[in-house]
Design brief:
The structure holds two protein chains of two kinds.
Chain A (H helix, E strand, L loop, with lengths): L1 H35 L1 H10 L1 H9 L6 H23 L4 H9 L1 H51 L6
Helix pairs in contact in A: 1-2, 2-4, 2-5, 3-4, 4-6
Chain B lengths: L1 H8 L1 E2 L3 E8 L8 E8 L7 E6 L10 H4 L10 E7 L8 E7 L6 H7 L6 H21 L12 E3 L7 E3 L18 H4 L11 H17 L8 H14 L1 H6 L6 H10 L10 H8 L19 E3 L2 E3 L2 H10 L1 H10 L2 H9 L2 H13 L5 H15 L5 E3 L2 E3 L4 H10 L3 H12 L2 H6 L7 H22 L7 H8 L18 H12 L11 H10 L17 H17 L7 H9 L2 H5 L4 H15 L4 H8 L2 H30 L1 H32 L5
Antiparallel strand pairs in B: 1-2, 2-3, 3-4, 4-6, 5-6, 7-8, 9-10, 11-12
The chains are: A mainly alpha, B alpha+beta.
Keywords (chain A): Membrane, Transmembrane, Transmembrane helix
Organism (chain B): Tistrella bauzanensis
Protein name (chain B): Protein kinase domain-containing protein
Chain lengths: ~160, ~675
């Protein structure tokens, strides 16, 4: 029990520090981007909002939820950024893009796909783990049953 | 078919047919029924068949010796064997003899022979009977059935007399108490012992005295018998049995010699023959039994010798021990009898034994009486028996189902009463000392048998050890009269048809009979064969014993007995843990049953390697079962952790999928396929 707690603490410690440092990096990058590439920063700030929420909310080791959402979210934002960059990288164009509901749907839909994956994958893995566990128990029980059938119930006494 | 079988069942020696339908009651005696007999090769011969009543041990071990005797004073014993008279009492032993033609001598003496004087009587009786007894003694046995109802005229002219059968019954049992030497007369009729020539010649003297008096003393009533016994003990047998009759001095001298209470001084064949040849002498005038300087008074009767007192004490068992202690019997023996050794032995017995009532006190008194009267019978409660009569009395107690007597006899052996009396043998007489030592060793062996409770031992083992020709008395086979192991196996095989599954094929009698015949003398030899710690082991023991018996007689196959045993082997099969082993055993037993070979059955159910494999298999199964249980518990305990781990892995997978999606989009954007 104590060992488990220590392991949890060990797991949480670096995760927390890496989590806060990654938040800081993101903030710095955003600030820098806002200064040097304002249109990109605007699109990213609005488009990557779900990822940012996940980043700031998640405290699990590995931050796989954030990684998944961010990867999907970014996959949805990248085409918008390409349009922005191919269209001259203008603030007006950035405003126009972020004003388009389809663009929002694209960016947030991709983030939604990420959320869905994050919700569905552990659920499926849990169900599969339970099934594997039950199968193992059934196997063990049937071996016991066979032994009892051969040697009688007294072997269990 | 049944008739043929019945016919065969009445044939002795393949030649003599006992005819149960023709009873010859004139030749009946106590415990003996007489039947007509036909010699199938010579129908002119006149024969009788004497059949021992059920429940009497017989002396058939002497048949081969007795039938060789051809003496005028002894009825010819032709043959002997087991017959079934068909009266529903099962098989019994029959002795085939020549038929006496002139009736019983005693009847004739009372009626027509009144005029015979003493000397004529001695010529009529003594010469042929002494010669007959000599012939019997020469084959190293004793007649021990000398009685008025066993003395016949051989011919119808009544010129020749002869003694009758001596094999149908325990030695001495059929003799009147007056015909027994004084120490044996105090014993139970069936426990008077084998005796020897001295006892036969005493009986001959008593018979002669009874013939002279035309009556047998002590036969009128139990009181008369007790009074006669007391007079014999106090005044000597000669005085008591002749009852102050007046004989010619020659005959008186002869009777004194024959009726001497001292076996060493008693006349035998040589003295009688010398007397008959005219070299007349006179037997010892006095009994040499030590007489007390002062009498010991018990129940108002003065006793002047130890045997008289011991007999009286035994008759009043409940009060005897108190009297022995209060009246200082040891002091009386040491001072009045003048036997310090016996006195101190009695004192030691009292001080070492229990005296507060119950079985312990009985044993103490029995030892005291054995020390008081070492020549006499062993006495315990209501039982008194000569050391050499133990075997027959044990047999009779079993045959009569007399539990009290059996119990007393077992206690006698366990308490070592014979050893107590043998310990008082005169140490100066080397020959008697050696004999006593060998007898002691024998009784020690018997004591070991009785003390052992395992099946195959106990009093039953002593029974068959002391009565080598006795048939097995188990109720299962008693009707078949099996005297040998093969006969026992065949009898059990026949019994199997009527036996229910609940009936055990081996009881204590059968086990002891087999142990005796196989010469198993110590319980260790049956270790691993006979166990009684559970129903299964008991049933296995029964099979093991019978298979041991069959091993000595491989030609005897017993399919029905095998079936009976297999029907009862369920618990043995069930004692094996493995189901497959049990199923295999049941199949194999079923296959082996028809062979009638008990060893085959034993090999299936009592194989040590198989038992060991089963035990270790069971142990391994227990361990595995427990391990599996623990594994299941561990699984249950770690279920949540596994789930969490799986979910964590699920998230990793989700992240990987996310990255894959991102890379796909990047690739698409790079190579211009999106947008």
């Amino acid at each position: 029990m104590a060992k488990k707690a220590a392991a949890k603490r060990r797991a949480k410690g670096p995760a927390k520090s890496s989590g806060s440092s990654s938040r800081l990096v993101v903030l710095v990058v955003m600030v820098v981007l806002a200064l040097v590439a304002t249109p990109t920063a605007l699109v990213l700030a609005i488009g990557m909002a779900p990822s940012l929420v996940a980043l700031f909310l998640e405290n699990r080791p590995g931050a796989y939820t954030t990684k998944c959402i961010a990867a999907c979210n970014l996959a949805g934002v990248l085409p918008v950024l390409r349009d922005l960059w191919l269209g001259g990288h203008l603030l007006s164009q950035a405003r126009m893009l972020v004003g388009d509901p389809l663009v929002w749907l694209q960016m947030y839909g991709a983030a939604g796909v990420g959320w869905s994956l994050v919700w569905l994958a552990p659920l499926v893995a849990g169900v599969l783990a339970d099934a594997a566990h039950d199968r193992a128990i059934v196997k063990l029980r049937s071996r016991q049953e066979k032994l009892r059938e051969e040697w009688g119930d007294e072997i269990g006494s | 078919m049944a008739e043929a079988t019945q016919g065969e069942a009445t044939i002795v020696g393949g030649r003599y047919r006992v005819m149960p339908e023709i009873r010859l009651e004139e030749f009946d005696r106590t415990h003996i029924e007489a039947f007509a007999v036909e010699d199938m090769r010579d129908r002119t011969r006149s024969l009788i068949g004497l059949v021992a009543r059920r429940g009497r041990p017989v002396r058939d071990e002497w048949m081969s010796a007795i039938r060789r005797i051809d003496q005028p004073g002894l009825l010819r014993t032709i043959d002997g064997g087991v017959v079934d008279p068909g009266d529903g009492q099962g098989k019994r032993y029959a002795v085939i003899m020549e038929r006496p033609q002139g009736g019983r001598v005693m009847d004739w003496l009372r009626a027509e022979g009144q005029s015979l004087d003493d000397l004529e009587m001695s010529r009529l009786l003594l010469r042929p009977l002494a010669a007959a007894l000599k012939a019997v003694h020469d084959v190293r046995t004793a007649h021990r059935a000398i009685a008025p109802d066993n003395l016949y005229f051989v011919d119808s002219a009544r010129t020749r007399i002869a003694l009758g059968d001596c094999l149908c019954g325990p030695p001495g049992e059929s003799q009147p108490v007056a015909f027994e030497s004084v120490e044996r007369a105090a014993a139970h009729p069936a426990g008077r012992g084998d005796g020897g020539p001295r006892e036969d010649f005493f009986a001959l003297g008593a018979l002669f005295a009874a013939a002279l008096a035309r009556k047998v003393p002590g036969t009128e009533s139990p009181e008369a018998a007790a009074d006669l016994m007391l007079r014999r003990l106090e005044r000597g047998s000669y005085v008591a049995l002749t009852d102050r009759a007046r004989f010619g001095s020659d005959v008186g001298g002869l009777l004194r010699g024959l009726l001497s209470d001292n076996a060493e001084e008693r006349w035998g064949f040589e003295e009688v023959r010398a007397w008959l040849d005219g070299r007349r002498s006179i037997g010892a005038m006095h009994s040499t039994r030590p007489q007390a300087a002062r009498a010991f008074t018990f129940k108002g009767v003065d006793h002047s010798n130890t045997m008289s007192l011991a007999t009286a004490l035994a008759q009043h068992w409940r009060e005897a021990l108190r009297v022995v202690i209060e009246e200082k019997l040891d002091g009386w023996v040491a001072r009045a009898i003048g036997d310090e050794r016996r006195g101190s032995m009695i004192a030691q017995t009292i001080s070492a034994g229990r005296t507060d009532g119950g079985a312990g006190a009985d044993a103490t008194l029995a030892r005291v009486l054995a020390a008081l009267d070492p020549e006499g019978p062993l006495r315990l409660r209501h039982v008194s028996v000569m050391k050499d009569g133990l075997g027959t009395l044990i047999a009779v107690s079993f045959l009569d189902d007399d539990r009290d007597t059996r119990q007393a006899l077992a206690e006698m052996l366990v308490e070592g009463l014979p050893i107590t009396s043998l310990g008082l043998v005169d140490t100066n007489d080397a020959q008697r000392r050696r004999l006593a030592q060998s007898e002691m060793a024998e009784f020690m062996r018997l004591r070991g048998f009785v003390a052992e409770t395992i099946m195959g031992f106990g009093l039953e083992r002593v029974l068959y050890d002391l009565n080598p020709t006795l048939p097995c008395l188990s109720p299962l086979v008693a009707d078949a009269y099996p005297q040998t192991v093969p006969a026992l196996l065949m009898a059990l095989d026949q019994r199997a048809a009527k036996a229910g599954r609940g009936t055990a094929p081996v009881d204590r009698h059968i086990a002891a009979f087999i142990a005796t015949k196989l010469g198993i003398s110590y319980a260790g030899a049956l270790k691993g064969v006979v166990r009684q710690d559970s129903e299964a082991s008991e049933r296995l023991s029964q099979l093991n014993l019978l298979s041991l018996a069959q091993e000595t007689q491989p030609q005897v196959l017993v399919p029905a007995l095998s079936r009976w045993l297999v029907q009862r082997l369920g618990p043995v099969v069930q004692s094996y843990g493995a189901k497959t082993t049990r199923a295999w055993m049941e199949k194999e037993l079923e296959r082996a049953v028809s062979t009638g070979n008990l060893n085959a059955l034993r090999a299936i159910v009592d194989n040590p390697d198989r038992r060991m494999a089963d035990d270790s298999g069971m142990a391994a199964a227990r361990t595995t079962h427990a391990q599996l249980g623990m594994a299941m518990r561990r699984y249950d305990e770690t279920r949540a952790a596994r789930r969490a781990e799986a979910q964590h892995f699920g998230r990793q997978v989700a992240a990987m999928v996310g990255y894959t999606l991102l890379l796909s989009v990047l690739a698409a954007l790079t190579f211009g396929s999106v947008g």
